[in-house]
Structure formats: structure tokens, C-alpha cells
What does this fold into?
Amino acid sequence: QVRLVESGGGLVQPGGSLRLSCAASGSIFRIHAMNWYRQAPGKQRELVARITSGGTTNYADSVKGRFTISRDNAKLTVYLQMDSLKPEDTAVYYCKVDHSEGFNVFASWGQGTQVTVSS
It folds into this structure.
């Protein structure tokens, strides 16, 4: 019964900023990575940013230098700071947490939050 609740999406003008949050609750015994994906209408879902349990971060080329992923381990929360937003960043953003218990590996998804960048 792992649950991920996303927040922080909305409408912003080009060049603006948003901060997405994803808070996890439930039976998460070991977290391997926290991820942000996005999916625009008619497009495939793509990995935007990832942070591992060791703190290593990875970003899609399209967002490098503009987006920053971070975490608060005590709060079981992952954030995505989005700066210098562009219209092409418009999408539904999904949080995904990779976790495990014993030999079982799980991927839990948030409900998605809409980000719209438009003037």
C-alpha cells in the first residue's frame, strides 16, 4: 500500500518557475531511486530526472541546466525545481519511486500533475 501524492503543478508563463513535490507514504522499506517522468499529449512518456539512493542525479538533455531534482529522505519526498520553463515543457508530470522489500522490486507511480507553460 505505497502511495505517492504529487503537488505543485499549474499554469506558468515561459521563463517562469514551478516546484513539484512527491510525497511517499506506506510500506517503503528500501528506496533505490526517485524519478520524474512527463508525458505530453500524443507523445511518449519520457524520463526527466532521476536521483538514486546515493544521491546521484541524471537529467534528460532537454532539461539540463533548468531542472533540479532533490530529495528529503526523512520526509520521503522528492522535488523537481523547474526554472526557465518553456512551452515544450508542457506535460503531465509523474513521480515514480523504485523500491524493494526482500527480493521483490517495485515501481510506484504518482497520480500525475499538470504543468502548462503558456503566455
Summary: The longest strand covers residues 91-101.
